[in-house]
Amino acid sequence: MISIHNEPQPTDLGDVRVANRAVVLRHVRLHAPCSRADIAATTGLNKATVSSLVTELLDRRLVRETGLTGNRVGRPATMLVLDGSPYAALGLQIGADDLVVVAVDPGGNRLLTWRRAFPAPTAGPADTVRALVTLARRAIGRVTGQGRTVLGLTVGVPGLVDTAGGVPLASGLGWRDVPLAADLRTALRETGFTVTVDTDANLAVLAEQRHGAYAGATDLVHVTGGVSVGAGVLAGGRLLRGGRGHAGELGHLCLDPAGPPCPCGRRGCLAASTALPAVVARLLPDATQDGPVTDYLPELDRIVASARQEDPAVLAGLAEIGRHLGHGASILANLLNPEAIVVGGHFATLAPWLLPAARAELVARTLAPQAGGCRLDASTLDSAAPALGGATAALATIEAGRLPAG
Ligand SMILES: [Zn+2]
């Protein structure tokens, strides 16, 4: 189980009940369909407690009954599964050329995924907040129109995010000191639900842990590919945030002091050679002739087409970018020894040409044999992983055992 916030320590009976509710919900999420007796037997909670908690969860429609099963010793039992159909949680992400919103329900069902073309790197923070709010309102309108209550909304940003949800620096967007969470709350007005901001990488690894190819892994890294390159790190099942929330800035590791300039003002950062704008500039020198790229999809399509036609310059460029990516991955492997590093965004799109070189570099630069068992793979989630993770994160209070208001 992932703890994205400090877990409450039970101090009174109310807190104990919250903690027990979380245990029951988690059991149903992982083992549904299951009976009350199954829950009691596995969790060690007594049957009366389980029965009372389940009654409450049925009342709030966080679980539902699916009928009887007689396929066990003893009398038939009523089976339980997650419900959550009266609720929705939203996640949004700010991409290189789009904004994405995803809604999920507490049962893990994806309710909607909407993209809107939007050039955040050239638009600036004020217009980006307006566009985010417009997109969020449309999604809120859709799910509330289905009779659902919104539980929370989390926005993923490619940059540094502080504990108040502010963005001290997002160099790929050209942002500095943007009070994003506060601005969003002001613009959305009285929402009745929590509005939070996190790094896109942290949210993406939450999505991986719940929905990706390595779901359930406790030591896992998601490396985002977009205007920036960030690492969301799960270590021992917990999200690694660091003292002020700024862990995971993989993109600004200096790989070569004499390397190209980075938007952060330094030289030779991993992002300076592997972030999406750098990749397009490296492989398609004509792409920026008429100004900054505002729509990357056609450019990525051109790169894929050239690679498929085995254009030697493009293949050599992709192999070089792959080696840089593998170098960055080896630093993660040496420091963290994860089970897997999964790459998203344009790294996933270009994986067939990047990953062979990246894997060789990872193994060559990691001290432990075979990179310490670390796999390097493309994410199997679509490029909405941060938004999906944002929606997942917005369910955290329910999963921690707090009942929704009402
Ligand atoms: Zn940098």
TrEMBL record:
Domain annotation HTH marR-type: ranges: 23-65
Pfam annotation, one family: ROK
Database matches in InterPro entries: ATPase_NBD, HTH_MarR-typ, ROK, WH-like_DNA-bd_sf, WH_DNA-bd_sf
Taxonomy, superkingdom: Bacteria
Similarity comment: family membership: Belongs to the ROK (NagC/XylR) family.
Listed name of the protein: ROK family transcriptional regulator
Source organism per UniProt: Micromonospora humida
Source taxonomy: Bacteria, Bacillati, Actinomycetota, Actinomycetes, Micromonosporales
